[in-house]
Specification:
Length: 236
């Protein structure tokens, strides 16, 4: 390779970094995008970041818990899909940990939430969650939480399935198919959708590592309607 002089190198570096900054400014994501990304990080951060899956069990995960290794590093595993921790769906059953929810941190200063993630008992290092990811996660916790139980009755979605069908056939059908069974490595959507709070979370924020859209930009009622429709699809 041709050797560049120091001055040329510096000029080239500056041109590259200026171009990079301009490109970055122009593509600077909106807060809604960052909140949805935070929601996906809450789901499974290492998949979103193309990072390394943790192998050890999280030190704050209870010894008598049912899960091990990477699963115990997902925010949702300790704090729940409904963000209510031990006061929500994970108050009993195989996901029980007794750990608080994050609903109490809705509205909190995102910088303070980042500190919570870096400190004990969490210990998410910058190698795991780089600053931009920790900041997006904090935005999600502070500004992105809905109370999914307001869209539920008897555990199922209380949304309008007929309204949801129109969105489903417009937005989801290309990937999931009319019957919800088109994605090969996934159980039928009709079966998965029985978990109302998880389905609401995924529709609002998207699926980690997939091109699935995040419908957070629309009224959350639409996500509830979609969930209600998905619950009518074949379960097997
Ligand atoms: C292994 C279990 C575990 C995991 C995984 C976990 N947390 Fe926590 N989290 C806790 C515990 C325990 C507390 C309570 C700490 C305390 O009271 O000092 C807590 C507290 C919090 C709080 C403050 C709660 C409040 O409102 O009072 C926030 C915010 C939080 N966690 C966010 C997260 C996020 C975001 C993730 C994912 C990156 C995460 N946590 C992953 C165990 C966990
Ligand atoms: C670009 C393709 C694409 C679109 C559009 C799309 N999805 Fe998905 N979706 C996927 C893929 C791929 C997965 C991941 C399957 C897996 O992990 O095995 C997924 C996962 C899901 C899951 C979680 C499944 C699980 O196992 O946890 C739900 C719920 C879901 N999609 C619902 C929807 C709904 C409702 C819509 C429309 C609003 C939609 N998707 C639009 C591709 C898409």
């Amino acid at each position: 390779m041709r050797k560049l002089t120091g001055a040329v190198c510096a000029a080239a570096a500056m041109a590259i970094s200026t171009g990079f900054l301009l490109a970055q400014d122009m593509a600077s994501p909106s807060e809604a995008f960052r909140i949805a990304r935070g929601g996906q990080l809450y789901d499974k951060w290492w998949v979103v970041l193309n990072g390394t899956k943790p192998e050890e069990t999280h030190p704050a995960y209870p010894d008598d818990g049912q899960y091990k290794a990477d699963a115990t590093w997902r925010c949702k595993e300790c704090h729940g899909w409904d963000y209510k921790g031990a006061e929500g769906a994970y108050s009993s059953g195989k996901h029980f940990t007794g750990i608080v929810g994050v609903a109490g941190s809705a509205g909190a200063d995102p910088a303070a939430i980042v500190e919570i993630l870096r400190a004990e008992p969490h210990g998410y290092t910058a190698d795991m969650l780089p600053d931009d990811a920790a900041e997006d996660l904090a935005l999600f916790i502070s500004k992105g939480q809905i109370d999914p139980t307001t869209f539920m009755s008897d555990g199922m979605s209380s949304g309008d399935a007929a309204a949801g069908q129109v969105y489903y056939e417009g937005v989801c059908v290309g990937c999931h198919g009319l019957d919800g069974k088109k994605v090969k490595d996934m159980d039928p959507l009709g079966a998965i959708a029985g978990n109302t709070v998880e389905t609401m979370h995924k529709i609002l924020n998207g699926q980690p590592g997939e091109a699935m859209p995040a419908l957070r930009v629309l009224d959350p009622q639409i996500s509830a309607d979609l969930t209600a429709y998905a619950q009518t699809l074949p379960k097997e």
